[in-house]
């Protein structure tokens, strides 16, 4: 029987091309007709430490990387030790050590003398490309495709790396012929491009008309800053790296005030510094986007790992009470979608929009359509081209809570904008009645936001016995786990895309099920706390995890089973 889904992993110290080799292998698998999803781990070090890159591929849709590994490549001795729990009895473990000395009780340990082979080629940096050659052989990949992509990736050293791939392939043919996997043939891909979540968000920002992005580098959000910086000339973007997160947020608020479709990006610690700017946008009714890519806290926490611990931080960010929107992508495609939709929501609602991602979504890759050619609808909101004398920027005459706004320079469109409570023209006020009226006007945006923000998605039947509820990055893992279930039809899955304001539909959906399971990659189950605050919500079971690692399908499968 031909197997449809496989997982392979490359591990070793930083500086040996663990990530670059993994990404290249992902592209080769995509070109070979497979659906790919990957995940990388690395410590907060520039060089050294333990880095790993794992890829799950399938000739059907691969929603999330698996935990159990079919083939494992250690670039240097000892780098298999932290992964023993991922090995099964069938795992092929390639090491540059004597297999007899390792005493591994699971898997088949095979000697791959990477140091010897790469030294003969004149560079130890080609160990990763030698491993790609071995992987190409044991997974029955077309060597022509492999060599074409290797040559394109390493154009300045193509001869050396092509020789390395051939060396690995021939070594595998001579030594590992009886260990080849029976892999189902790939299919022609409708989704031929590889992106990570941060890139996808960046493409959504570009296609959504974004033209100003300011951010101070903070893992794991930095990828978007770097990506957009490379697109400045081509797409006429302004991308700024200021001195800190406070500057980034306020600079972005100023750009949005001036008419830019603007966003800033950071992780939890940086977002904490941006909280005053969130409130400023609330009272001045400036629509801008905050891209919050979470990692485990508190404080510096685990800076290169993942968690969903910033949900309530985002929802209750900023002092005082004012409307905001919090949305969360569950995968690569939703990262793109929300990169554009967040700008539309910010423009239409004139209030802060916070996109909560995390390291697992932001820095993991999968294949999808060519996002550089994707089209989205750009919505500009209630911008006036001409204003009458006495323009009321914060007009109370609105059913939606959204007043007309003018871009600086619009004839008769001048108004005041500062951090004080104000009247309809923007002049500061401490009048009790007017303050209440202005608060009530802004509060109307909550109902408007419910109508405009992304709706929850129900997978499966509403007649199923059990309902799984989650948000954000657990989406793919849950869908992959359900593929593994023999009784998949017993489960429905509710994926919540808008976390604030809460859509009343959620209460209606959840009441239809007797058993409810909530899955979150945090320790305190913040979604449960949130839903309990809005309606009578009592889940049957809560599954959480908070050790810096994402859920894997095998974990969810075991819990559901």
Topology summary:
Blueprint: E1 5-14, H1 18-31, E2 35-41, E3 48-58, E4 69-74, E5 87-95, E6 108-111, H2 114-121, H3 127-138, H4 143-153, H5 158-175, E7 193-196, H6 197-207, E8 212-214, H7 222-229, H8 232-235, E9 238-240, H9 245-257, E10 262-266, H10 268-273, H11 275-284, E11 289-294, H12 311-315, E12 325-327, H13 332-349, E13 353-358, H14 359-362, E14 365-368, H15 432-443, H16 445-452, E15 457-459, E16 466-471, H17 474-484, E17 491-496, E18 498-500, H18 505-510, E19 515-520, H19 526-532, E20 541-544, H20 553-560
Parallel strand pairs: 1-4, 4-5, 5-6, 8-9, 8-10, 10-11, 11-13, 12-13, 16-17, 16-19, 19-20
Antiparallel strand pairs: 1-3, 2-3, 7-14, 12-18, 15-17
Helix pairs in contact: 1-4, 3-5, 4-5, 6-7, 6-13, 9-11, 17-20
Structure description:
The protein is α/β, with parallel strands linked by helices and 561 residues long. The chain has 4 domains: 5-179, Pyruvate-ferredoxin oxidoreductase, PFOR, domain III (Pyruvate-ferredoxin Oxidoreductase, domain 3, 3-Layer(aba) Sandwich); 194-373, Rossmann fold (3-Layer(aba) Sandwich), CATH 3.40.50; 382-454, no CATH class; 456-560, Rossmann fold. The protein is built from 20 helices and 20 strands. It has helices at residues 18-31, 114-121, 127-138, 143-153, 158-175, 197-207, 222-229, 232-235, 245-257, 268-273, 275-284, 311-315, 332-349, 359-362, 432-443, 445-452, 474-484, 505-510, 526-532, 553-560; strands spanning 5-14, 35-41, 48-58, 69-74, 87-95, 108-111, 193-196, 212-214, 238-240, 262-266, 289-294, 325-327, 353-358, 365-368, 457-459, 466-471, 491-496, 498-500, 515-520, 541-544. The protein has a 7-stranded mixed beta sheet, sandwiched between helices. Strands 2-3-1-4-5-6 form a 6-stranded mixed beta sheet, covered by helices on one side. Helix 6 (197-207) crosses helix 7. The radius of gyration is 26 Å and the shape is globular. The chain starts with a strand and ends with a helix. The relative contact order is 0.09. The model has no long low-confidence stretch (mean pLDDT 96).
